[in-house]
Fold:
Amino acid sequence: MICRMDHLVILVQFDVKPEHLPRFRELIEVNARASVRDEPGCFQFDVAHEQGDPCRVLLYEIYRDAAAFDAHLAMPHTQHFLAQAKPLVERQVITRLTRTVAPPVKAGD
Structure:
């Protein structure tokens, strides 16, 4: 069964300075876990990196709506991440999308 919905999807691309990658990874892991655990409007927060370039980090976040994303931005854990991560990155690009089709997620190994 395919679910249809109009959730807000946030894609973020970070180009992390190589010397700061370990610290960035620590910070984003804490933020991602806290977002899903503590925010009822945050449904998913995946962190990945580009194959062949571990310094290009991508976030795939799903929120109930724009208000849930605004609440996410105001959370202490997000504010901490943003303040700490800013000097660690060379570039950040944010894209907002509307999620329209989402087949059920399969359990992985």
User: Anything to note?
Assistant: The chain has one domain: 3-98. The longest helix spans residues 21-38. The two ends are 22 Å apart (CA to CA). The domain at 3-98 is CATH 3.30.70.100 (Alpha-Beta Plaits).
